[in-house]
Amino acid sequence: MQKTLNNLPHKVVFCKKCVISNQRPQSHIEFLHDKKKIGAKYLQMENDGVCSPCKVWKINNNMNWKKRNKELLKLLDKHRKGNGEYDCLVPGSGGKDSAFVTHLLKFKYGMNPLTCTWPPILYTKYGLENYKNWLKTCKVENIVLKPKEYIMKYLTKKSILNILHPFQTFIIGQKNIAPKIAAKYNIKLIFYGESEALYNTSPEEFNNSKVDDKYFSIKNINKIILGGEKITDLYKSNYINRSDLDHFIPISKDEIRKKGIEMHYFGYYQKWLPQEIYYYAFNNTGYRPRPFRSDGTYSKYSSIDDKIDDLHYYTMFIKFGIGRATTDASQEIRNNHLTRDEGVNLVRKFDGEFPNRYFNEIMDYLDINKDEFFKKCDEYRSPHLWKKFKNKWILKHQVK
Ligand SMILES: [Zn+2]
Question: Quick one: average pLDDT of 25-31?
Answer without folding.
Answer: 56
